Amino acid sequence: MSSPVIPGIQATAGPFLLGYVFNWGLYGALSVQVYMYYMSFSNDRFHAKALVFGLYLLETAQTIISTHDMFRTFAIGFGDPLQLRSTQLDWLTVPLIGGIVSCTVQIFYAYRISILSRSKVIAAIIVVIALTQGAAAITQGVQAAIIGDFTKLRSEAFVSVSLWLSGSVLCDIMIAVIMSYYLSRSNSSVKATRVLVNRLIRLTIETGSLTAVVAVVDIILFFAFPLNNYFFTPSIALAKLYTNTLVFIFNSRAVHGRELDHQPSDFITLKASRANPGGHAGSQSTDAVSAIQFKAGELNTEISIQRETLVDKSSNSANETKFQGSWEGV
């Protein structure tokens, strides 16, 4: 005689199964991307490699732990409805590791924005939001470990979940909008360079929008369906989406470098210039900011900030100050 089917088992167990499957699929995609990064950019600076491989180690640990939970839920505890309610080690793999990963990636983007915009204030705002959502995610993980029951999370972890996911959405949208704005200010007479800028803008918007949309879906499912576990599917995949998009942006330098190989110059520079309102009559001062340089031979990308002061011919003095900062990444 067959055992009776547990009512609502599909809505309870299905999201877990899909989440674990998607998690493994994204881990496979990430492994391929990390391998491509290792083969193409082994000469990157230490902090860039530490970021990529450090996040990959975190994602590997998360995948191993989540696989342990999957085996315990669908093999050891097969048919036991209490296993589907237990948070097990999901408090570690989803909010805690996910919060650390998303916070790290967002702070890296804030660093890029500080170079593009030359504004520490804008970057500081993004860092504060990233740290807030990361702290909320860690808090939610601790609460989940103490509560131990998915059905009670919505009532007892409402504030931490709201801060975590809404903070992630806000931070991702700000990053995409601000980076697109400063990239769009770049100007160049070279057609290939203009095309490259447009592709960078599109890439920034697409990657930022992807994580933001998934976070929005996650928070909607969490509060709209309190009796089901639909939220788990996007929750467990969110961290790997952050890491995949970051490594994808690093690896996109290879494509951009190949496209620029036909250019006669070693470097192609994108500059966003603005007039200095404090300049004197007969002189002109421009700030060439956010100069993105692609060295096709080494597939290396640098951000340089340069100020040049042009003085009237009647003047016998000319001053030039250069500020340059570089980082490995697009």
From TrEMBL:
<feature type="transmembrane region" description="Helical">
    <location>
        <begin position="203"/>
        <end position="225"/>
    </location>
</feature>
<feature type="transmembrane region" description="Helical">
    <location>
        <begin position="20"/>
        <end position="38"/>
    </location>
</feature>
<dbReference type="InterPro" id="IPR045339">
    <property type="entry name" value="DUF6534"/>
</dbReference>
<feature type="transmembrane region" description="Helical">
    <location>
        <begin position="91"/>
        <end position="109"/>
    </location>
</feature>
<keyword id="KW-0812">Transmembrane</keyword>
<feature type="transmembrane region" description="Helical">
    <location>
        <begin position="162"/>
        <end position="183"/>
    </location>
</feature>
<keyword id="KW-0472">Membrane</keyword>
<keyword id="KW-1133">Transmembrane helix</keyword>
<feature type="transmembrane region" description="Helical">
    <location>
        <begin position="50"/>
        <end position="71"/>
    </location>
</feature>
<feature type="domain" description="DUF6534">
    <location>
        <begin position="168"/>
        <end position="254"/>
    </location>
</feature>
<feature type="transmembrane region" description="Helical">
    <location>
        <begin position="231"/>
        <end position="250"/>
    </location>
</feature>
<dbReference type="Pfam" id="PF20152">
    <property type="entry name" value="DUF6534"/>
</dbReference>
<protein>
    <recommendedName>
        <fullName>DUF6534 domain-containing protein</fullName>
    </recommendedName>
</protein>
<feature type="transmembrane region" description="Helical">
    <location>
        <begin position="121"/>
        <end position="142"/>
    </location>
</feature>
